[in-house]
Amino acid sequence: MFGCDCTMTAMAYAALAYVLYKIFRGIYIIVYPYMIATPVDLHQLAGNAKWAAITGSTDGIGKQYAIELGERGFNLLLISRTKSKLESVKEEILKKCSKNIEIDIVAYDFKNANLDDYKKEVLPALEKRDVGILINNVGLAYDYADQLHHLDLQRNADIVIVNTVPVSVLTAAIIPQMLKRNAGVIVNISSGAAYAKMPYFSIYSSTKAYINHFTNILRSEYANTGLTIQTVCPFMVLTNMAAPMIETGIMTQSEVKMMSVNVKDFVHSAVRTIGIMPETTGCLSHQIQAAMFGLPEFALDYILKFQTKKFSAVALIQREKAAKQQ
Ligand SMILES: NC(=O)c1ccc[n+]([C@@H]2O[C@H](COP(=O)([O-])OP(=O)(O)OC[C@H]3O[C@@H](n4cnc5c(N)ncnc54)[C@H](OP(=O)(O)O)[C@@H]3O)[C@@H](O)[C@H]2O)c1
């Protein structure tokens, strides 16, 4: 009987310690990176390599990473789909940037997963430069959420390819030169959608979970090196990708106001977490939103059920619209 009491007490203390750990950890990841930590010198993390390469860099988050890194004095290798947009973003950054930097561009459609094409058109541009920072940002989403069998098959395939192949191939290609310097930064842009099993976003959410899992594993594989490997999981950032969420009514204006961040503030905040947080949402307000994902699974599933009802209503309207247009 006595032994049994001791076991129960030990278990109660262990449970209490676990709950306290979860609470303090939750507070730490909200408060420390955004309110206390001093940003790390990126040139030092990059091993003084002069170039930063950014995928999906003609718009939204990727373009803003390019602007931020240019302002910190890195030369920029912009890799994105549309050559004319790349040329105009290059001109725009060169004109506005307060530092004297070089910018090169590579036009590549990441829907093309053919490795021979990567080897011809993308990898040489990375390999011939001293790249100290790689931002794997390119990503593709749906225009609106729906059940898997209603979604366009080609779009599903494109999302799998664009969200998983470039991050895997470019990371593997850049690591050898970073290991030689025993320094370098790799930032993989995932999404808050990776944190939950999101009905109606099956493929997008799964591809983002892939990025989180992949990046976690890399942090273990290269733990004893000078490489900094970060996952960034944003919630809503006001870019072209987020626009359909507003246009289709998935989010109300007040939800948008409460939950979204403009791209400039978001990236400025996210860049300051490099070398401080191995995984982050990128900014304070998103980190608070992410705290919800620490809820027990049954509570989270319950909340997501309400969300799913809304997705389902919007999907119906969008399907009817599409049918009328045909
Ligand atoms: N915005 C959000 O709320 C949000 C939330 C969570 C996660 N994210 C993630 O953040 C990343 C950036 O999103 P964003 O909102 O900045 O997107 P965005 O505004 O739509 O910009 C996407 C960029 O990627 C390029 N791109 C798209 N498809 C491409 C392809 N097949 N090949 C090469 N480049 C391509 C685009 O080039 P073009 O100009 O030629 O189209 C553009 O430069 C994505 O990985 C996304 O999943 C965004």
From TrEMBL:
<dbReference type="GO" id="GO:0006694">
    <property type="term" value="P:steroid biosynthetic process"/>
</dbReference>
<keyword id="KW-0560">Oxidoreductase</keyword>
<keyword id="KW-1133">Transmembrane helix</keyword>
<keyword id="KW-0276">Fatty acid metabolism</keyword>
<keyword id="KW-0521">NADP</keyword>
<keyword id="KW-0443">Lipid metabolism</keyword>
<protein>
    <submittedName>
        <fullName>Uncharacterized protein</fullName>
    </submittedName>
</protein>
<keyword id="KW-0275">Fatty acid biosynthesis</keyword>
<keyword id="KW-0472">Membrane</keyword>
<dbReference type="GO" id="GO:0005783">
    <property type="term" value="C:endoplasmic reticulum"/>
</dbReference>
<keyword id="KW-0752">Steroid biosynthesis</keyword>
<keyword id="KW-0444">Lipid biosynthesis</keyword>
<dbReference type="GO" id="GO:0016491">
    <property type="term" value="F:oxidoreductase activity"/>
</dbReference>
<dbReference type="InterPro" id="IPR002347">
    <property type="entry name" value="SDR_fam"/>
</dbReference>
<comment type="pathway">
    <text>Lipid metabolism; fatty acid biosynthesis.</text>
</comment>
<dbReference type="GO" id="GO:0030497">
    <property type="term" value="P:fatty acid elongation"/>
</dbReference>
<dbReference type="InterPro" id="IPR020904">
    <property type="entry name" value="Sc_DH/Rdtase_CS"/>
</dbReference>
<keyword id="KW-0812">Transmembrane</keyword>
<comment type="similarity">
    <text>Belongs to the short-chain dehydrogenases/reductases (SDR) family. 17-beta-HSD 3 subfamily.</text>
</comment>
<dbReference type="Pfam" id="PF00106">
    <property type="entry name" value="adh_short"/>
</dbReference>
<feature type="transmembrane region" description="Helical">
    <location>
        <begin position="12"/>
        <end position="35"/>
    </location>
</feature>
<dbReference type="InterPro" id="IPR036291">
    <property type="entry name" value="NAD(P)-bd_dom_sf"/>
</dbReference>
